[in-house]
User: Fold this.
Amino acid sequence: MELEIRDLVKRFGGIQALNRVSLHLSGDELVGLIGPNGSGKTTLVNTIGGIYRPEEGKIMFNSKDIAHLKANEVVRHGIGRTFQVTRAFRRMTVMENLLVPALALHPEKGRRAWEERAREVLDFLTMDHLRNDYARSLSGGQQKLLELGQLLMTDPDLLLLDEPFAGVHPKLMDTIFEYITTLHAQGKAFLIISHDMTSIFTLSKRLVVLNYGNIIADGDPEVVKHDERVIEAYLGEED
Amino acid sequence: MTVNIPSTTEPRPRSGKSAKRRFWFRTDLVVALVALVITLLVPLFVQTYWLHVLIVAYFYAILASSWSLLAGYGGQFSFGHMAFMAIGGYTSGLLGRFVNLPPLPGILLGTLAAGLAGWAIGALCLRFKASYLALFTIAFSEILRTLIRGETQITRGDHGLHVAPLFGEGVISRIPYYYTMLAVLVACLLFMYWLANSRVGMFLRAVREDEEAAAARGVNIVHYKVLAFVITSMIAGLAGGFFAHYITILTPNIMIIPQMGLVIAMAIIGGVESLISAAFGGMIIQIGLEVLREFGAWRMVIFGGLLVITLRFARNGLLAPLFQRLFGLGPRAELREEATTDGA
Assistant:
């Protein structure tokens, strides 16, 4: 897996949400993306994921330019993403939620085969007993797990997780943490946005910090933690 | 690279829910068979006038159920359904008038014309938010109606276009028309039921729930929205073709906005997220309008009130919960509650 972002620019009217952002991820890296509210983290993930079209810059994924692809085309290249506020298909069953991405990307395998795969994913997430329930009836944490399950169905190389721990019960937070660790150990690359400092500092070997659409720090979490610009822009808020 | 997800080795327990679903599936079949036998025997017991009412009711059932596929499953709110119906009817009628094309090929071409118009409109405005489709289809319907009214040399405008009867001038009995419209209704319902339960139906519901999330999961949202629009336009065109060759005269009034409102009311009062409920909504309201004919315009007030009550207190219709309770048909109870709270 190789993601190369070069001079990415995204504007909303007069607001420059991303200001020539460049970032490189390779192999099975697990990178944390942090920054104050409005710094451009979700915009970056939305632009990589094809929800937004960038005004300038390139997004190369495995040597292919995906900057101007639609969201449904980006996911075909092996990039899966979750949303800050969970966006499971609420009035569809858990099983249907898993079948949608699978059948959208690989209809040729057939529904029965995908249902078997979905049962395996649900077993992994210890949610098999909920397969006939509607997503709406799940807790916030379970919906986060369901989104993770949707990604596992399509087996992406890179997972973009937007606030996977936000609004989740502490027990489920530990569970999600474990799943991410397990999947990472199995070779999956991650770019994780989180405001949960404990989790993100524990999980990541590399932290990228965004502020006003600019990358102000990129490196070892322990080094980033003591970076003056980061303290001023983000951690300094606590003082 | 594949994720090494642990797999269960024990046989999976069969849940009560799936067992229950199979039981209800059998009940579905029994109910459908009984309903079919009753509808097949109806011509033996009812007068010609009521046979006519039932033929028109089946026509509206096709329109209401196909609109529910578009709106209830696909989340696309269109006011153009009656316009596509009219395209089907007028295409067949005009081909009969100018090139002496027999009714059946005319209906086929009318269906294709409705689909082509549906594709053009879908490709134009289904990339935008749902409200654009509603506004665009209102404008499209009114433009088409004005065009048909104005081009009297071709369409005969308000004087009405005479259309050849489906079974020829010699056949006066309504019975062949009754069975034909019933067959078209059953065929359309079976096709839509199959579609709604296929992966296409699943994608449509995903798009209805959240377009961006559906796209992020790999669903080509514009493609499936246009596909649903074309299919439902063709079904409306097909119904329009058969209806035109039954009533044998077409006027632009058939596509006025209140007529479209009636179809929407039928689908909503029946249950917009259930094809069979929407179809029954169409039938019951059409029959109800005839039963209450002596009330004149007040019957519209009665059905308007019923629509308001349905929207306020039973967002997934009056019939869908009833069918669910009695026969296990349509969306589950928790979905109805969600429809009420979500406003979906």
